[in-house]
Design goal:
The chain contains eight helices and no strands. By secondary structure, it is mostly helical. It has two domains: about 210 residues, Four Helix Bundle (Hemerythrin (Met), subunit A), CATH 1.20.120; about 130 residues. The two termini are about 55 Å apart.
Length: about 425
Protein backbone atom coordinates (compact mmCIF):
# COMPACT_ATOMS: atom_id res chain seq x y z
CA UNK A 1 0.00 0.00 0.00
CA UNK A 2 1.25 3.46 -0.92
CA UNK A 3 1.62 5.56 2.19
CA UNK A 4 0.77 9.10 1.22
CA UNK A 5 1.07 12.03 3.61
CA UNK A 6 -2.69 12.06 4.04
CA UNK A 7 -2.66 8.37 5.02
CA UNK A 8 0.26 8.91 7.39
CA UNK A 9 -1.47 11.84 9.05
CA UNK A 10 -4.70 9.84 9.19
CA UNK A 11 -2.81 6.94 10.78
CA UNK A 12 -1.19 9.21 13.36
CA UNK A 13 -4.53 10.87 14.00
CA UNK A 14 -6.08 7.42 14.39
CA UNK A 15 -3.46 6.47 16.97
CA UNK A 16 -4.11 9.68 18.88
CA UNK A 17 -7.85 9.16 18.59
CA UNK A 18 -7.52 5.53 19.74
CA UNK A 19 -5.38 6.64 22.69
CA UNK A 20 -7.99 9.27 23.49
CA UNK A 21 -10.80 6.71 23.35
CA UNK A 22 -8.83 4.26 25.49
CA UNK A 23 -8.13 6.99 28.00
CA UNK A 24 -11.77 8.10 27.84
CA UNK A 25 -12.92 4.50 28.29
CA UNK A 26 -10.67 3.89 31.28
CA UNK A 27 -11.67 7.21 32.79
CA UNK A 28 -15.35 6.54 32.16
CA UNK A 29 -15.06 3.08 33.71
CA UNK A 30 -13.33 4.47 36.80
CA UNK A 31 -15.81 7.32 37.05
CA UNK A 32 -18.68 4.85 36.67
CA UNK A 33 -17.24 2.75 39.47
CA UNK A 34 -16.69 5.83 41.60
CA UNK A 35 -20.25 6.93 40.90
CA UNK A 36 -21.60 3.48 41.69
CA UNK A 37 -19.70 3.22 44.96
CA UNK A 38 -20.55 6.82 45.80
CA UNK A 39 -24.21 5.94 45.37
CA UNK A 40 -23.60 2.86 47.53
CA UNK A 41 -22.01 5.04 50.19
CA UNK A 42 -24.91 7.47 50.03
CA UNK A 43 -27.34 4.57 50.31
CA UNK A 44 -25.44 3.15 53.30
CA UNK A 45 -25.52 6.56 54.91
CA UNK A 46 -29.27 6.76 54.29
CA UNK A 47 -29.79 3.25 55.72
CA UNK A 48 -27.75 4.14 58.79
CA UNK A 49 -29.64 7.40 59.17
CA UNK A 50 -33.02 5.66 58.84
CA UNK A 51 -31.92 2.87 61.20
CA UNK A 52 -30.69 5.39 63.73
CA UNK A 53 -33.92 7.38 63.41
CA UNK A 54 -36.07 4.40 64.45
CA UNK A 55 -35.07 4.44 68.10
CA UNK A 56 -35.77 8.16 68.71
CA UNK A 57 -39.13 8.03 66.92
CA UNK A 58 -40.13 4.85 68.81
CA UNK A 59 -38.90 6.31 72.07
CA UNK A 60 -40.89 9.47 71.36
CA UNK A 61 -44.02 7.37 70.72
CA UNK A 62 -43.54 5.42 73.97
CA UNK A 63 -42.94 8.61 75.96
CA UNK A 64 -46.02 10.31 74.51
CA UNK A 65 -48.14 7.16 75.19
CA UNK A 66 -46.98 6.97 78.80
CA UNK A 67 -47.55 10.69 79.30
CA UNK A 68 -51.06 10.26 77.94
CA UNK A 69 -51.68 7.33 80.23
CA UNK A 70 -50.45 9.31 83.21
CA UNK A 71 -52.09 12.66 82.40
CA UNK A 72 -54.79 11.85 79.88
CA UNK A 73 -53.92 14.97 77.89
CA UNK A 74 -54.89 14.97 74.22
CA UNK A 75 -51.67 16.80 73.42
CA UNK A 76 -49.69 13.73 74.38
CA UNK A 77 -52.00 11.59 72.30
CA UNK A 78 -51.42 13.84 69.31
CA UNK A 79 -47.68 13.65 69.85
CA UNK A 80 -47.99 9.90 70.08
CA UNK A 81 -49.84 9.71 66.78
CA UNK A 82 -47.12 11.83 65.09
CA UNK A 83 -44.31 9.70 66.50
CA UNK A 84 -46.05 6.51 65.36
CA UNK A 85 -46.50 7.90 61.87
CA UNK A 86 -42.84 8.92 61.76
CA UNK A 87 -41.79 5.47 62.97
CA UNK A 88 -43.85 3.74 60.29
CA UNK A 89 -42.49 6.11 57.60
CA UNK A 90 -38.93 5.43 58.70
CA UNK A 91 -39.52 1.68 58.56
CA UNK A 92 -40.95 1.94 55.05
CA UNK A 93 -37.95 3.99 53.92
CA UNK A 94 -35.60 1.46 55.46
CA UNK A 95 -37.40 -1.37 53.65
CA UNK A 96 -37.00 0.46 50.34
CA UNK A 97 -33.29 1.04 50.90
CA UNK A 98 -32.61 -2.63 51.80
CA UNK A 99 -34.77 -4.19 49.10
CA UNK A 100 -31.73 -5.19 46.97
CA UNK A 101 -29.99 -7.01 49.86
CA UNK A 102 -31.65 -10.28 50.78
CA UNK A 103 -30.14 -10.46 54.26
CA UNK A 104 -30.94 -6.88 55.16
CA UNK A 105 -34.34 -7.17 53.53
CA UNK A 106 -35.26 -10.08 55.77
CA UNK A 107 -33.89 -8.33 58.83
CA UNK A 108 -35.81 -5.17 57.94
CA UNK A 109 -39.03 -7.16 57.51
CA UNK A 110 -38.49 -8.78 60.89
CA UNK A 111 -37.79 -5.37 62.35
CA UNK A 112 -40.97 -4.06 60.74
CA UNK A 113 -42.96 -6.88 62.30
CA UNK A 114 -41.44 -6.28 65.72
CA UNK A 115 -42.08 -2.55 65.49
CA UNK A 116 -45.63 -3.24 64.39
CA UNK A 117 -46.10 -5.49 67.42
CA UNK A 118 -44.61 -2.86 69.66
CA UNK A 119 -46.78 -0.11 68.21
CA UNK A 120 -49.82 -2.36 68.51
CA UNK A 121 -48.92 -2.91 72.16
CA UNK A 122 -48.78 0.86 72.69
CA UNK A 123 -52.07 1.28 70.86
CA UNK A 124 -53.59 -1.44 73.05
CA UNK A 125 -52.51 0.45 76.20
CA UNK A 126 -54.27 3.61 74.95
CA UNK A 127 -57.41 1.61 74.19
CA UNK A 128 -57.30 -0.03 77.62
CA UNK A 129 -56.78 3.41 79.19
CA UNK A 130 -59.75 4.80 77.32
CA UNK A 131 -61.84 1.82 78.52
CA UNK A 132 -60.75 2.25 82.13
CA UNK A 133 -58.46 -0.76 82.13
CA UNK A 134 -55.22 1.13 82.81
CA UNK A 135 -54.38 -1.03 85.82
CA UNK A 136 -54.34 -4.22 83.75
CA UNK A 137 -52.06 -2.55 81.13
CA UNK A 138 -49.69 -1.41 83.89
CA UNK A 139 -49.55 -5.01 85.14
CA UNK A 140 -48.60 -6.16 81.61
CA UNK A 141 -45.83 -3.59 81.50
CA UNK A 142 -44.52 -4.75 84.81
CA UNK A 143 -44.49 -8.32 83.48
CA UNK A 144 -41.89 -7.19 80.90
CA UNK A 145 -43.91 -7.75 77.76
CA UNK A 146 -42.60 -4.61 76.05
CA UNK A 147 -39.00 -4.96 77.26
CA UNK A 148 -38.40 -8.28 75.51
CA UNK A 149 -39.79 -6.85 72.26
CA UNK A 150 -37.66 -3.74 72.52
CA UNK A 151 -34.57 -5.85 73.08
CA UNK A 152 -35.28 -7.71 69.83
CA UNK A 153 -35.79 -4.39 68.07
CA UNK A 154 -32.46 -3.13 69.37
CA UNK A 155 -30.75 -6.34 68.27
CA UNK A 156 -32.18 -6.02 64.76
CA UNK A 157 -31.23 -2.37 64.61
CA UNK A 158 -27.69 -3.13 65.75
CA UNK A 159 -27.32 -5.87 63.14
CA UNK A 160 -28.42 -3.54 60.39
CA UNK A 161 -26.07 -0.84 61.61
CA UNK A 162 -23.15 -3.26 61.84
CA UNK A 163 -23.82 -4.67 58.39
CA UNK A 164 -24.10 -1.26 56.77
CA UNK A 165 -21.00 0.05 58.49
CA UNK A 166 -19.10 -2.97 57.18
CA UNK A 167 -20.40 -2.24 53.69
CA UNK A 168 -19.59 1.40 54.17
CA UNK A 169 -15.98 0.59 55.05
CA UNK A 170 -15.65 -1.75 52.07
CA UNK A 171 -17.15 0.76 49.69
CA UNK A 172 -14.95 3.48 51.12
CA UNK A 173 -11.86 1.37 50.45
CA UNK A 174 -13.08 0.46 46.95
CA UNK A 175 -13.89 4.09 46.28
CA UNK A 176 -10.41 5.11 47.39
CA UNK A 177 -8.90 2.44 45.10
CA UNK A 178 -11.06 3.62 42.23
CA UNK A 179 -10.01 7.18 42.88
CA UNK A 180 -6.37 6.15 42.80
CA UNK A 181 -6.97 4.07 39.68
CA UNK A 182 -8.73 6.99 38.02
CA UNK A 183 -5.90 9.32 38.96
CA UNK A 184 -3.29 6.87 37.69
CA UNK A 185 -5.27 6.31 34.49
CA UNK A 186 -5.63 10.02 33.90
CA UNK A 187 -1.96 10.69 34.66
CA UNK A 188 -0.72 7.81 32.53
CA UNK A 189 -3.25 8.57 29.83
CA UNK A 190 -2.22 12.20 29.68
CA UNK A 191 1.43 11.20 29.69
CA UNK A 192 0.95 8.66 26.90
CA UNK A 193 -1.21 11.10 24.94
CA UNK A 194 1.40 13.84 25.31
CA UNK A 195 4.10 11.38 24.30
CA UNK A 196 2.09 10.40 21.24
CA UNK A 197 1.47 14.05 20.45
CA UNK A 198 5.16 14.88 20.76
CA UNK A 199 5.99 11.81 18.69
CA UNK A 200 3.48 12.88 16.06
CA UNK A 201 4.85 16.43 16.07
CA UNK A 202 8.43 15.11 15.79
CA UNK A 203 7.48 12.75 12.99
CA UNK A 204 5.59 15.51 11.18
CA UNK A 205 8.50 17.91 11.58
CA UNK A 206 11.11 15.37 10.53
CA UNK A 207 9.25 13.75 7.65
CA UNK A 208 7.08 16.60 6.40
CA UNK A 209 8.05 20.05 7.65
CA UNK A 210 11.84 19.64 7.33
CA UNK A 211 11.79 18.24 3.73
CA UNK A 212 9.27 20.90 2.71
CA UNK A 213 11.43 23.63 4.25
CA UNK A 214 14.50 22.26 2.45
CA UNK A 215 12.62 22.17 -0.86
CA UNK A 216 11.35 25.72 -0.23
CA UNK A 217 14.96 26.92 0.26
CA UNK A 218 16.02 25.19 -2.97
CA UNK A 219 13.05 26.70 -4.81
CA UNK A 220 14.00 30.15 -3.52
CA UNK A 221 17.60 29.60 -4.66
CA UNK A 222 16.47 28.46 -8.12
CA UNK A 223 14.11 31.44 -8.39
CA UNK A 224 17.20 33.70 -7.99
CA UNK A 225 18.94 31.94 -10.90
CA UNK A 226 21.34 29.92 -8.73
CA UNK A 227 21.51 26.28 -9.83
CA UNK A 228 24.46 25.31 -7.63
CA UNK A 229 22.23 23.72 -4.98
CA UNK A 230 20.67 20.49 -6.20
CA UNK A 231 17.91 18.65 -4.31
CA UNK A 232 18.94 15.19 -3.13
CA UNK A 233 16.77 12.24 -2.16
CA UNK A 234 17.98 11.15 1.25
CA UNK A 235 15.56 8.23 1.42
CA UNK A 236 13.20 6.31 -0.78
CA UNK A 237 9.74 7.80 -0.36
CA UNK A 238 6.61 7.17 -2.38
CA UNK A 239 4.48 9.87 -0.79
CA UNK A 240 3.91 13.45 -1.93
CA UNK A 241 7.27 14.57 -0.48
CA UNK A 242 9.09 11.97 -2.58
CA UNK A 243 7.11 12.93 -5.69
CA UNK A 244 7.82 16.62 -5.03
CA UNK A 245 11.54 15.91 -4.50
CA UNK A 246 11.72 13.95 -7.79
CA UNK A 247 9.96 16.83 -9.54
CA UNK A 248 12.47 19.32 -8.11
CA UNK A 249 15.39 17.09 -9.17
CA UNK A 250 14.00 16.85 -12.72
CA UNK A 251 13.35 20.59 -12.82
CA UNK A 252 16.91 21.34 -11.60
CA UNK A 253 18.45 18.96 -14.17
CA UNK A 254 16.27 20.48 -16.90
CA UNK A 255 17.24 24.06 -16.02
CA UNK A 256 20.91 23.06 -15.68
CA UNK A 257 20.82 21.42 -19.13
CA UNK A 258 19.18 24.52 -20.60
CA UNK A 259 21.82 26.76 -18.99
CA UNK A 260 24.61 24.64 -20.53
CA UNK A 261 22.87 24.85 -23.91
CA UNK A 262 22.63 28.64 -23.57
CA UNK A 263 26.33 28.79 -22.60
CA UNK A 264 27.27 26.71 -25.66
CA UNK A 265 25.21 28.99 -27.90
CA UNK A 266 26.93 32.04 -26.39
CA UNK A 267 30.27 30.47 -27.43
CA UNK A 268 29.08 30.06 -31.08
CA UNK A 269 28.67 26.31 -30.60
CA UNK A 270 25.61 25.46 -32.66
CA UNK A 271 26.23 21.71 -32.58
CA UNK A 272 24.15 21.30 -29.41
CA UNK A 273 20.93 19.35 -29.71
CA UNK A 274 17.80 20.65 -27.95
CA UNK A 275 15.11 18.03 -27.39
CA UNK A 276 11.86 19.35 -25.82
CA UNK A 277 10.50 17.14 -23.06
CA UNK A 278 6.93 17.33 -24.36
CA UNK A 279 4.56 19.41 -26.45
CA UNK A 280 4.01 21.62 -23.39
CA UNK A 281 7.75 22.29 -22.94
CA UNK A 282 7.62 25.94 -24.04
CA UNK A 283 11.20 26.67 -22.95
CA UNK A 284 12.63 23.63 -24.74
CA UNK A 285 10.63 24.38 -27.89
CA UNK A 286 11.80 28.03 -27.81
CA UNK A 287 15.44 26.94 -27.39
CA UNK A 288 15.10 24.47 -30.28
CA UNK A 289 13.60 27.17 -32.54
CA UNK A 290 16.31 29.64 -31.49
CA UNK A 291 19.06 27.11 -32.25
CA UNK A 292 17.57 26.33 -35.67
CA UNK A 293 17.23 30.06 -36.44
CA UNK A 294 20.83 30.69 -35.37
CA UNK A 295 22.03 27.85 -37.60
CA UNK A 296 20.03 29.27 -40.52
CA UNK A 297 21.40 32.75 -39.79
CA UNK A 298 24.98 31.47 -39.70
CA UNK A 299 24.39 29.63 -42.97
CA UNK A 300 23.08 32.86 -44.53
CA UNK A 301 26.10 34.75 -43.16
CA UNK A 302 28.42 32.13 -44.66
CA UNK A 303 26.71 32.44 -48.03
CA UNK A 304 26.95 36.23 -47.81
CA UNK A 305 30.61 35.94 -46.84
CA UNK A 306 31.27 33.71 -49.85
CA UNK A 307 29.47 36.19 -52.08
CA UNK A 308 31.41 39.10 -50.57
CA UNK A 309 34.63 37.14 -50.96
CA UNK A 310 33.86 36.54 -54.66
CA UNK A 311 32.86 40.16 -55.14
CA UNK A 312 36.02 41.26 -53.37
CA UNK A 313 38.10 39.13 -55.73
CA UNK A 314 36.31 40.65 -58.69
CA UNK A 315 36.76 44.14 -57.25
CA UNK A 316 40.43 43.38 -56.63
CA UNK A 317 40.88 42.19 -60.25
CA UNK A 318 39.03 45.22 -61.54
CA UNK A 319 41.11 47.45 -59.33
CA UNK A 320 44.26 45.82 -60.70
CA UNK A 321 43.01 46.41 -64.23
CA UNK A 322 42.14 50.01 -63.37
CA UNK A 323 45.53 50.43 -61.76
CA UNK A 324 47.23 49.03 -64.89
CA UNK A 325 45.10 51.23 -67.11
CA UNK A 326 45.86 54.26 -64.98
CA UNK A 327 49.53 53.40 -65.15
CA UNK A 328 49.37 53.18 -68.94
CA UNK A 329 47.37 56.40 -69.07
CA UNK A 330 49.85 58.14 -66.83
CA UNK A 331 52.69 56.93 -69.08
CA UNK A 332 50.84 58.13 -72.13
CA UNK A 333 50.17 61.46 -70.50
CA UNK A 334 53.83 61.70 -69.51
CA UNK A 335 54.92 60.93 -73.12
CA UNK A 336 52.36 63.39 -74.44
CA UNK A 337 53.57 66.05 -72.03
CA UNK A 338 57.14 65.42 -73.14
CA UNK A 339 56.12 65.61 -76.78
CA UNK A 340 54.18 68.79 -76.15
CA UNK A 341 57.18 70.30 -74.42
CA UNK A 342 59.30 69.34 -77.41
CA UNK A 343 56.67 70.77 -79.75
CA UNK A 344 56.49 73.93 -77.67
CA UNK A 345 60.24 74.33 -77.79
CA UNK A 346 60.15 73.69 -81.52
CA UNK A 347 57.29 76.17 -81.87
CA UNK A 348 59.24 78.76 -79.96
CA UNK A 349 62.22 78.11 -82.17
CA UNK A 350 60.01 78.29 -85.21
CA UNK A 351 58.46 81.49 -83.91
CA UNK A 352 61.84 82.97 -83.37
CA UNK A 353 62.92 81.86 -86.80
CA UNK A 354 59.68 83.20 -88.22
CA UNK A 355 60.29 86.55 -86.62
CA UNK A 356 63.76 86.52 -88.00
CA UNK A 357 62.50 85.53 -91.40
CA UNK A 358 59.80 88.15 -91.20
CA UNK A 359 62.34 90.77 -90.37
CA UNK A 360 64.48 89.57 -93.18
CA UNK A 361 61.51 89.58 -95.43
CA UNK A 362 60.65 93.07 -94.53
CA UNK A 363 64.20 94.10 -95.21
CA UNK A 364 64.09 92.41 -98.53
CA UNK A 365 60.46 93.28 -99.30
CA UNK A 366 61.52 95.60 -101.76
CA UNK A 367 63.72 93.01 -103.27
CA UNK A 368 61.08 90.51 -104.02
CA UNK A 369 57.33 90.55 -103.65
CA UNK A 370 57.04 86.84 -104.28
CA UNK A 371 59.30 86.16 -101.35
CA UNK A 372 57.18 88.62 -99.36
CA UNK A 373 54.08 86.68 -100.19
CA UNK A 374 55.68 83.40 -99.20
CA UNK A 375 56.86 84.86 -95.96
CA UNK A 376 53.35 86.19 -95.24
CA UNK A 377 51.88 82.78 -95.93
CA UNK A 378 54.54 81.20 -93.78
CA UNK A 379 53.75 83.62 -90.94
CA UNK A 380 50.05 82.90 -91.18
CA UNK A 381 50.71 79.12 -91.06
CA UNK A 382 52.98 79.56 -88.11
CA UNK A 383 50.27 81.54 -86.29
CA UNK A 384 47.82 78.72 -86.86
CA UNK A 385 50.41 76.23 -85.67
CA UNK A 386 50.93 78.35 -82.55
CA UNK A 387 47.19 78.43 -81.82
CA UNK A 388 46.96 74.70 -82.29
CA UNK A 389 49.95 74.10 -80.01
CA UNK A 390 48.37 76.33 -77.33
CA UNK A 391 45.09 74.35 -77.56
CA UNK A 392 47.02 71.06 -77.41
CA UNK A 393 48.92 72.27 -74.32
CA UNK A 394 45.67 73.24 -72.58
CA UNK A 395 44.11 69.84 -73.45
CA UNK A 396 47.19 68.09 -72.10
CA UNK A 397 46.94 70.08 -68.88
CA UNK A 398 43.23 69.15 -68.47
CA UNK A 399 44.08 65.51 -69.28
CA UNK A 400 46.76 65.60 -66.57
CA UNK A 401 44.23 66.93 -64.05
CA UNK A 402 41.75 64.20 -65.01
CA UNK A 403 44.53 61.60 -64.68
CA UNK A 404 45.19 62.85 -61.12
CA UNK A 405 41.43 62.55 -60.28
CA UNK A 406 41.40 59.05 -61.83
CA UNK A 407 44.39 58.17 -59.62
CA UNK A 408 42.52 59.35 -56.55
CA UNK A 409 39.45 57.28 -57.59
CA UNK A 410 41.69 54.24 -58.14
CA UNK A 411 43.22 54.77 -54.68
CA UNK A 412 39.71 54.93 -53.11
CA UNK A 413 38.70 51.78 -54.98
CA UNK A 414 41.88 50.10 -53.75
CA UNK A 415 41.06 51.05 -50.16
CA UNK A 416 37.49 49.75 -50.60
CA UNK A 417 38.86 46.50 -52.00
CA UNK A 418 41.22 46.14 -49.02
CA UNK A 419 38.38 46.76 -46.59
CA UNK A 420 36.18 44.24 -48.46
CA UNK A 421 38.95 41.65 -48.26
CA UNK A 422 39.32 42.23 -44.51
CA UNK A 423 35.52 41.97 -44.01
CA UNK A 424 35.43 38.76 -46.07
CA UNK A 425 38.26 37.23 -44.07
CA UNK A 426 36.55 38.14 -40.76
CA UNK A 427 33.22 36.62 -41.86
CA UNK A 428 35.02 33.54 -43.07
CA UNK A 429 36.86 33.19 -39.76
CA UNK A 430 33.60 33.57 -37.78
CA UNK A 431 31.84 30.98 -39.94
CA UNK A 432 34.79 28.62 -39.41
CA UNK A 433 34.52 29.08 -35.63
CA UNK A 434 30.74 28.47 -35.74
CA UNK A 435 31.42 25.11 -37.35
Amino acid sequence: MKWTIAKKLAFLGGILLAAFFVLAGITYNNISKIDMHTKGLNKSFEILAANNALAPSLFSAESAQRSYLLGGSQGYLKQYRASVAETRSTVLRLKELTSDDKQLKKMTEDLDNMLASRLNSLEMGIDMYDKGMADEYIRLINDGVGINLMNKVEDAKDFIEKTEKSKLNQQTEILAENNHSAQYAIIWGIGITLLLMFGTAYYTSRNISTPLSRLADIANTISQGNLSQKPIRTEARSDEIGILTDAFIQMHDYLDRMSHIAESLSKNDLSVQVDPLSDQDNLGISFALMTDNLRLMVSDVKDAARMISGSSSQIAALTSQLAASSTETAAAVSETSTTLEEIKVTANQVNQKSAFVSESARNTAQMTQNGQKSVNETLAGMSKIKEQMTFIADSIVRLSEQSIAIGEIISSVGDLASQSNLLARECFNRSSKSR
